[in-house]
Amino acid sequence: MARDRVGLLFMFGLPILLVVIVTSIQNSTFELMNKNTVPLLLCNRDTGAASHQFIAAVEQVGLFNILTASGTDSSIRARVQQKDALLALVIPANFSARVEARARMVAGKAMNSFGLEDSTNKGAPGDTTTMPIALYYHPILQASFRRSAEGALYSALQVVESKHILKTLYFSLNEKELPDSVESELLNNKTTIEEYPVSRDRTRTIPNASQHNVPAWTVFAMFFVVISLSSGIVREKVNGSFIRLKTLPTSYLVAIVSKQLTYLTVTLVQAAIIFAIGVWLFPVIGLPTLHFPTDWAALAVVTFLCGWCAVSYAICIGVFSQTEEQATGFGAISIVILAAIGGLMVPSFAMPGSFRLAASISPLHWGLEAYYGLFLEGGGFSTIWSNILPLVLIIAGLQGLSFWGLKRKNLI
Known about the structure:
By secondary structure, the protein is mainly alpha-helical. It contains 15 helices and 4 strands.
C-alpha cells in the first residue's frame, strides 16, 4: 500500500480536496439569501417618487448588490452578456405616473364599493395600463434562482403599489395626508413565519453545509479504496502471486481477509481525517464547524459498516476483473454512478421516481441516509436501523459473491 502512491492519492488526497471544495460552494449557496448578494444592474428612466421608493424596497430585500446603469436596452443587454452582472432591471419612464394612476383607480373603485363619491379622482384617471419592468438575465442563471429574484422584485413592487393605494384611499376619506406612523403600521404589520427543523432529538439547531457535505463525501472517499484494493488483487492474479500464496500452508482466503482488515482500517482513518477537517480546519478557512451527533456508538457502527461495505465492493470487483485496467476503470466509474443515483450529487427527493427506486441498490445511498439520520435529524441507533439493515444485506451479498468467485476461479 505504501508503494501505491496513486492509490493513496485517490484514497486520501482527492477526497479531502473534494470535501473542502464542495462544502465551500454549498455553504455559499446556503448563505446566498442572507449574507451574499447578487450584482444587479439597475437602470432607472423614471424621475418620480415611486421609482425611488421601489429602488429603496429592492435594497431592503438584501438579495441584490445594486449597480447603477444607464443607456439603451442594447447596452444593458450587452453588459449582462459580458457578465458585468447576471441580472439587469430597467424601470421604464412614467413608472411613477402609472403607479399613481393605478392607485387612484383602485381607490376610486373602493370608494364606489363603499357607496361614497371620490372627490379626488374625478375626470380622467390617467394611463393605468401596465408597463412592464424589464428584467434581463444571463442564460447561465438557473431557473430556481431566477424565480427567487423575480419573487423578491414582485414583493418590492407590491410594497410601493400598496403604499400609494393606501395614501390615495386615506386622502379620499379624510382629505389629508396619511401619517407616517399609520403608514408604517399598515404596511409592516405582517404575520411572521418561524422555521422549525423536524429533528428526532427535538432540537431547533438548523443543519449547516458541513453537516450535509462531510458525511456524504466521507462515504464517497471510503468507496474509492476500490482503485487500490481491486487493482492489487488483479495484480496478484496476473503476476502469479496467488499461486505462490497457495503453496503456503494456509488458504488464500486468509490473504483476502487480511486485505479486508487492512483496508477497513484505511476507511476508518479516512473518516477520522475528514471528520477532523470538519471540526478543526473548516472554522479556520471560514466554513461552518461540523457538529457530531450525540449517539457516538451509532456513529461508530455506521462508519464501520460503510467502510466494510466499501472494502467488500472492492474485493468483489478485484475477484471478477481480468486486468488492472478493468478493475480501476469499472471501479471508479461505478462508484461515481452509485454516488449519483445514491443521492450524493443530487438529493434523492429531487430525482424522478425511477431513479429513487434505483437508489435502493446503491450502498452509498444507505450509508448516506444513515449518516444523515445522525448528523441532520439528531437520531440514534434505534432510528437508523432501517438504513443499516440494507447496508448489512449488501455487505453479505458482496461477500458471498466474492467467495463464490474465488471458488469458481479455484483461488480457494
